[in-house]
TrEMBL record:
Single GO MF annotation: oxidoreductase activity
Pfam family, one: PDH_N
Descriptive protein name: Prephenate dehydrogenase/arogenate dehydrogenase family protein
Phylogenetic placement of the source organism: Archaea, Methanobacteriati, Methanobacteriota, Stenosarchaea group, Halobacteria
SUPFAM superfamilies: 6-phosphogluconate dehydrogenase C-terminal domain-like, NAD(P)-binding Rossmann-fold domains
Region listing for Disordered, in residue ranges: 239-284
Membrane-traversing stretches: none
Acidic residues: bias regions: 258-274
Domain Prephenate dehydrogenase nucleotide-binding, residue spans: 28-117
InterPro entries per the UniProt record, alphabetical: 6-PGluconate_DH-like_C_sf, NAD(P)-bd_dom_sf, PDH_N, Preph/Arog_dehydrog
UniProt keyword list: Oxidoreductase
Amino acid sequence: MEVLVVGAGAMGRWAGETLDAEFEVAFADRDPDAASAAADDTGGRVVALDTTATFDAVCIAVPITAARTAIESHADQASRAMFDVTGVMADPVTAMREHLPERERVSLHPLFAPENAPGNVAAVIDARGPVTEAALDAIDDAGNHVFETDPEEHDSAMETVQAGAHTAILAYALAAEDVREEFATPVSRALSDLVGTVTEGTPRVYREIQESFEGADAVAAAAKRIAEADGEAFERLYEEARGKRRRQGGPTDPGEASADDELTEGDAAEESTTGDDSTRGDRQ
């Protein structure tokens, strides 16, 4: 079987390298040099972006804002199936239903940067068949965990795990003052690591996420509640946050509390400056 990967950026290359286990891979990109480099790296071939050739499957690996146009433009090249790895699901799934009503359709979101693969891959299996099954097998065989969702659940989750999380991290980076390394605490060090992870990315990618998903306003509103809280109100907000954390799978037994929870006021000054290295789960 053959697959055409439309888009030869980092995620397109990941798709090509991963699908190579089950497919012969071709790349098309508006930058022919990028397509050639991706093909060289994966042992695939290059085709023109406006090709009229057909393939068993077409994989759309373009920026979020270009997804619908790419799906419409390349629907005729997909003789049996189409899938996308754009990072948003409601609109691509709708577009694929519209332009490929009789073909297999899957929307995929690798929840990691390609250099951090393997990881979790969200999947909306909208119209299952042998071609999409082969693609899902290739992704699974590469060590990824594929789990099923629906467009509404996925896009709602991205408001928290992408738009909201990025807002909180970037806000901390913008608000933080320069301090000597010796003053770092486990919490501040972890946040600084996350700032590094986010800011090592591509601004355009993060911009598209912020424009595609809500979530920033909720983080800003929560920060305002904390900033304006008096002593008792702050404690209530703290307990509210702890309750949400526990409902999301955090420690529920007092004996499982974090090291920070176990500190007394006198111990606080003795906190270690070591902290766990953090990784992100988005493409971000």
